Amino acid sequence: MAKPSTLKNLTVTLLVITFLSAVGLGGMNMLTQEPIAKAKSEKIIAALKEVLPDFDNDPTTEKTEEDVDGGKLVLYTAKKGNEWVGTAVESFSPSGFGGRISVMFGFDTEGKITGYSVLEHSETPGLGDHMVDWFKPPVAPVKSLTEKIFGFEIKPAEKNSNVYGVCPEGGLKVSKDGGTVDAITAATISSRAFLDAANRAYSGFKGNSGSYTGATPAATSETNNEESTSNE
Question: Are 172 and 166 in contact (CB under 8 A)?
Fold first, then answer.
């Protein structure tokens, strides 16, 4: 005969289930913690190679942290032949359309952007997520099958969105806000967040560069101003 259910029996059963669940979650966390940390480390190393000038040291062993605008930036020092050639800054912005974004920017010794790599974001697919490539130098367009067959060329619309070689002294803004950088089509909020992360990265770089050069960089760069029609 089955024992009648009592409050005591139910409480013991619930405690056992809770305990087993906690043990299971703890074990799963231990199993996945190392692979997650390894994947993150590999992502950082790949980003450093993408955004920095040529270097021969290990920037991950020469990193520092700096508080900027209420957040923590991670700065990686790049050297070649024991000479400082640039700094990578792991930056962020809390203002993305989908929330916080994390972007690594590389700077040369003059404070000009040498590259960037989007580490994390939750922007709208097909819109804000174009930040992954939008602000990079333009690439040669690939001719469509129609162009190849009929022997003509469709020129893509020109845009001023490339931030490579630009020093963010004074702050980068989208053209819609009176700046010089064209926003991602229909994704102004995402574009503003990206440039916010770039400006924050430069603030961190500028505050740290004196330890190498004895002075802060003052190089500037200009791009043409065009109006954007983004709506995100």
Answer: yes
Calculate the dihedral angle through the C-alpha atoms of 184, 89, 108, 59, rounding to the nearest 10 degrees: -140
* 3-class secondary structure per residue, 46-66: HHHHHHCCCCCCCHHHCEEEE
Give the pair of three-digit tokens for residue 92: 């962020």
The whole-angstrom separation of Cα 97 and Cα 138 is 25
Model confidence over 166-201: pLDDT tens digits? 999 999 999 999 999 999 999 999 999 999 999 999
Cα distances from 168 to residues 118, 152, 160, 201, 218, in angstroms, run: 18, 39, 15, 9, 10
pLDDT band at 223 (very low <50, low <70, confident <90, very high): very low
CA dihedral 63, 66, 68, 71 (to 10 degrees): 80
Exposed, middle or buried by CB within 10 Å (0-12, 13-18, 19+), for 47? buried
Alpha helices by DSSP H, 68-155? 131-134, 145-150
Helix H or strand E segment including 113: strand 113-120
